[in-house]
Batch of 2 targets.
Target 1
Amino acid sequence: MPPTIGRAHGKVALVTGASSGIGKATGRALLNAGYRVLGTSRKAQDGDALDGIEMVRCDVTSDESVNTAVERVLARSGQIDLLVNNAGVGIHGAAEECSMAAVHALYDTNVYGVLRMTNVVLPAMRRQGSGRIINISSILGLIPSPFGAHYAATKHALEGYSESLDHEVRTFGIRVILIEPALTKSGFEQSMSAPDRPLPVYEDGRANAARWLSEGMKLADTAASVGETVVRAAQASRPGARYTSGKMAGRLALLRRFAPASMFDKALRKDMRLS
């Protein structure tokens, strides 16, 4: 039996990218755990609500939008006890097929968006003397991702940033935690961008990677399971630095940790039909 989750009466959670997928499922899980949940979306209107989640307009790629959104959240709630940085985008294609403009846009959401939100929320948490920041990473923050190199790189960057920041802010009663899902039934894979300068030489590899992804989605974990992992990490009395979410992520993390590098490399290339 899983441990009983305590009720977070009076606590306020802010979840980015909460209009769908993992963000929406996380918002629901936090509501069920007793949090007051405010969620962000680029298209939200003030006063909107989504299944009990109070929505706030925010584009994490804009300093002004992030500042305004956090000000509105604090004006409504007076505090932010938990920040879940979930908003993210992806590109499916070979690294060489992606222009620097496309890569910059990817980093602007997946990495710089997290930095913007965190930097604006941290002063409020320091004043409170407490807080938790949960960053939605990926198992691709630990393993390679052929034809998803730039997305994996953003998650590797997020891992290094989060672990380092956690050491900097513990003195103030704040913890920073990573959540690492694998393939998740959230609609994310359908919203990934195609490379903006595709090259014929990579067509077969890109197609094989797409087939691998499609097959893997049949065994993917649910967005709700990620939300449950977030709640567990948010309420742990002694949180770990990272939590894998779901069976697939757990198996891959174990393989990456204990299997010889050559064995992991060979298995990855076989699964993805890379010659």
Note: The longest strand covers residues 174-181.
Target 2
Amino acid sequence: MPAYVFTPPPQPAVAVLGRSELFPARRVYCIGRNYAAHAVEMGHDPDREPPFFFLKTPDALLPDGATFPYPPETSDVHHEIEMVVALERGGRDVAVTDALGLVFGYGVGVDFTRRDLQAEAKKLQRPWEIGKAFDHAAPCGPLARAAEIGHPDRGAITLDVNGARRQTGDLDQMIWKVPEMIAYLSRYFELAPGDLIFSGTPSGVGAVARGDRLEGRVEGVGELRLDVG
């Protein structure tokens, strides 16, 4: 065993439904503007332009039932409900027809965004990390194994805040489908077991406030509940 100058931090991981073993997280990829209605509400053309991705850090993962601490240096934190794709195999230049063979399972996630900081970064043509890759910005509920639920390509995706519906859509509204996302990413990165892909959010994104209760669902996949602290 190698020696380190200090004790390494714990391995970030996600729970698996019906299993005691955890899914070890390696990287967290997120696709931007993957639902046409969300692209429109963000002021962009919903045509099928090439996808783009950004990264969150695996230690930003937050489990189901946790409290999301309202982050510093912002007054405009937005929720974005998403289906999360978890990979158990990797590779480069993966064919679309082979892509689902890499998938371990699926979960429900929220891509929290410091919208004011993201908007400022966009205006200055700077990277988005300050608005996207902050602490606890990637909650993810327990993963449902593809071997048990298959590969969902349709079904309702919703988010309620304090019991009121904020976001609603359907997985079949994704511009880039899961196999296409995996294949495209593999052209630029060597994918590996433990990678997570947040697959985009439907329209209805909006601000959260301290004390809010969030309940997200993806039909056939699962649920995610969070409190904003």
Note: The longest strand covers residues 103-110.
